[in-house]
Design goal:
11% strand, three-stranded mixed beta sheet, alpha+beta, 2 domains
Length: 126
């Protein structure tokens, strides 16, 4: 499926390779307990859910934009007077995608042998 969303692959020379290896280690430990672990790409999930353009999450305008749209999907968000951080926004998007995965509504992209990335299937809430 072509979505026009850039994907950044972490390689052996990546500056975040230690984080990637830590993630792999955590994934193996969690899966060893019989728990599913899924890979979520928050930017792609936002494009699937809300369409383009997606404002930068590092800006107050971008975080306010995301908060307004998340209110349409998720009950119990923090007080709107306290802006969510970009990490909180990503965590909420990841949790929503995991919810869709758990209910059989997420789309898997990729090659199973290399790992799949899951995206929400509900699209373009503007």
């Amino acid at each position: 499926m072509r979505l026009g969303i850039s994907l950044y692959v972490t390689g052996k020379r990546s500056i975040i390779k230690s984080m990637a290896y830590r993630g792999i280690s955590l994934r193996r430990a969690i899966e060893a307990r019989g728990i599913d672990v899924i890979e979520v790409y928050p930017f792609a999930a936002k494009v699937m859910l809300f369409g383009r353009p997606v404002p930068k999450k590092q800006t107050p305008v971008g975080r306010a934009w995301l908060y307004e749209r998340l209110q349409l999907l998720v009950n119990g968000l923090p007080d709107p007077e306290r802006p969510i951080s970009h990490d909180e926004g990503d965590a909420i998007i990841a949790a929503y995608t995991a919810y869709q995965y758990d209910t059989g509504m997420a789309a898997a992209l990729g090659v199973p042998e290399e790992g799949l990335i899951y995206l929400p299937t509900r699209t373009a809430i503007t």
